[in-house]
């Protein structure tokens, strides 16, 4: 094996390792969905509808257009004093 072949082999192994590490990290990340109507005032995640700009801007508890990221499959079973969470904005 000459120098060019050895360098190409080393680059290939390094790239494969980087791809493998990235894929493993992505697989470890929990999958989430937007759940509306479950955030206490000021505890929402980004963009809670008209009159808000981003995270922590909801003005009332369990605001129907304010969302919080939750683990997939848990939204509609999350209970609040105003009912359950919703996958779509509430009026």
Structural class, by secondary structure, is alpha+beta
The 3D shape can be described as: elongated
Radius of gyration: 22 Å
- Strand segment count: 4
Which regions contain 5 or more consecutive residues with pLDDT less than 50? none
Number of helices: 1
Please, could you describe this protein's structure?
The chain is α+β, with helices and mostly antiparallel strands and 91 residues long. 29% of the residues lie in helices and 15% in strands. The chain is built from one helix and four strands; from the N terminus they run αββββ. The protein has one helix at residues 3-28; strands at residues 32-36, 67-71, 79-80, 83-84. The protein has a two-stranded antiparallel ribbon with strand order 1-2. The protein has a two-stranded antiparallel sheet with strand order 3-4. A hairpin with a 2-residue loop joins strand 3 and strand 4. The N and C termini lie far apart (69 Å).
Considering the chains and any ligands shown, give keywords for the structure.
elongated, 91 residues, alpha+beta, 4 strands, two-stranded antiparallel ribbon, two-stranded antiparallel sheet
């Amino acid at each position: 094996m000459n120098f060019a072949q050895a360098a190409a082999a080393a680059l290939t192994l390094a790239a494969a390792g980087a791809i493998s590490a990235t894929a493993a990290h992505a697989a470890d990340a929990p999958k989430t969905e937007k759940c509306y109507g479950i955030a206490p005032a000021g505890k929402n995640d980004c963009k809670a509808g008209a009159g808000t700009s981003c995270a922590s801007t909801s003005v009332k508890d369990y605001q129907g257009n304010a969302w919080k990221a939750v683990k997939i499959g848990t939204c509609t079973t999350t209970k609040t004093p105003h009912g359950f969470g919703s996958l779509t904005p509430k009026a």
